[in-house]
Structure formats: structure tokens, C-alpha cells
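pasting for the record
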Amino acid sequence: MKYRLLISTLICLAIAGCAPKRPPIKVGIPVPSKDIPEKKESYYIINGERYYPIPSATGFVQTGIASWYGDDFHGKRTANGEVYDMHKKNAAHTILPFNTYVKVTNLNNKKYTIVRINDRGPFAKGRIIDLSYAAAKEIDMVGPGTTQVEVVALNRDQIDPGIHEGIFTVQVGSFAEQANAKRLADKLLVLYEYVNITEYIDANNKRFFRIHVSKTHTLDNAMEARKKLEELGFTEAFIVRL
């Protein structure tokens, strides 16, 4: 009975703090006193244009211009909260789900690289994907800066097993108020050994407190942890690579 009560409490907190049904906050409008979502992935607006991330990458294929980004963004936060490392094979895409692995083929020389989506962009007209320096170097496009590519979303069995290794955690929520983040974190500590609150300042200089649950060295374990959290009511939980 106590366990059921705890689960109900967690779900209520998650709904209250992580998935409110209010409209997205527009840039320039003061943040209300209540907690708001750090971002709403149903859509987001950049330079007046609205982008709608898709729920699944299954069967996704796209052809167009790729670009790359490096020093200016190295060490800064990506859209999913990771620290951007130009020497790792990651990429930004406007609509693919975070943690999607894609094969990017340079159509001019047939060289390819496999990258993980952990950021949003590019927002320059006519471009479809922004590669990290490491990925761009692998397909010989650092010098030209842009090139024609094919982007194909990969199934799990098409991914190099080494990609599944690292340090992973699951983000269950993001709060504007630190006290509310701590309240939920304290409840989660009853069920999980690792619960961490990370402070994050977004591009609009707004501060949020992200709650990360579970810490593992394999993507498989992280996916299992996310599944269990979804069963507890944290339906918007997603995996972050540390």
C-alpha cells in the first residue's frame, strides 16, 4: 500500500513539474512563477520557424546539404543537455529524436560516418544535418565546409556494439524552481541509488534544474531504466550520455 502511494505521488509530481498542458513559453515573455518545461519537443521555434520533432526515426531517409560545427560550440551544452565534444561523432538535426543513430554518406566520395543525434540544427536554409568535427573529418568535408549527403536512420542491429558503451543516465524532468526539483529527487531516492540534480542555463539565459536517475555504463541498461521510469508515469523520460 505504501509503495502504491509513493508511486502515485511520483506520478503526480512528474505531471505537475514535467508535462504541464500550458502553451510553450515564447522568448521575451517573463517566466511565470510555476514550473514550466525546459523545452517542449512537440515543437520548437527558431528564427520564427516552427519545427516538429518526429516521435520515431524508423525508415527515415533524407538527402541534402550537410555542414559541420566545431570550436565555437565545443564545451557548450547541446539541446539535450550534454556537453558538446567536437572530437566525438555526434550531430544536430532539426526533427530526428535524440539518441537516434544515423549513417551519413558523403555522396561526392561515398565515404560515410555513423553519428548520434544529440543537438538541434542546422537552421541555415537548405541544410539538413550539422556534423561534429570528428564526423565531418571522417567523410572528408572539413575543408569544403558543406557537402551533399544521404542521411539514413539505423536500426539497433546496424549499430557498432562499441557505440552502446559509455556512461548513461535518464532525465526524468526539468524544473524552473530548485525546491520542486529537490522534492521529486528526494522521492526518487527511495527507489533509485543514483539521483542527481544538474543546474542548466539555456540559450535564453533561463535557469533550470534537471533530474537524472540511474547511472550505467551500457545503453542497454539505460534503456531498461527508462522503460521502468515510463511505467512509473515519467512518459517523457529520455537517455543522456554523460
